Amino acid sequence: LDESQTVRYIGITRKVASCIELHRRDVSALTKFIKFHITAPDASKEELQGLWKAWMQDAIELTGGIPDGNMKGNTMWSLKKQASKPSKPELRITSGKGLSDLSVPLDQVLKGVVESNKVVAFIKGTRVEPACGFSYQIVSELTTLGIDFEVVNVLDETYNPGVRDAIKEMSEWPTIPQLYVKGEFVGGCDIVSEMAENGQLKELVED
Fold it and tell me: Distance (Å, rounded) from C-alpha 147 to C-alpha 118?
């Protein structure tokens, strides 16, 4: 929906977070509000298409026409991948062989990670597919500000076993996501969002 909350495009996807982020990048002026419906993980293609048709009918009845983004020939809302800027891979704390493969305690490894990388976000999921709304918010704030950052997926028990609890102990902060800048803990989603809004986050990174 645009700023006046007029429906501009209706679509279906199994990758909600990345889809929204790409639309915000490519058609930001028309992507001011988002409404979405979460279906069962095993919903069939036919069920998703049926939901899309129902939404489309509702929009037509409400406005008297098809949203312009869905009209034939309109390619504005076609998602375009940035081939020149592939997504950065997430940091891996271990080689995938478990904590026993580490030569030093996990907390020392994590301390080294945040000290050797300027900006590190510990989130649920990946930068392309955050697994919760708060993680998506932090990734979105950093991306919007053009800040180069690293991501550690705390849900990846293959390469990051124990990190979810260990980072909470290290920061003495009870929730995920968490942001570190220049080796120092900054805060969780609310603090980061507030700092992004008032300009402090950009200043902290660039200082």
Answer: 10
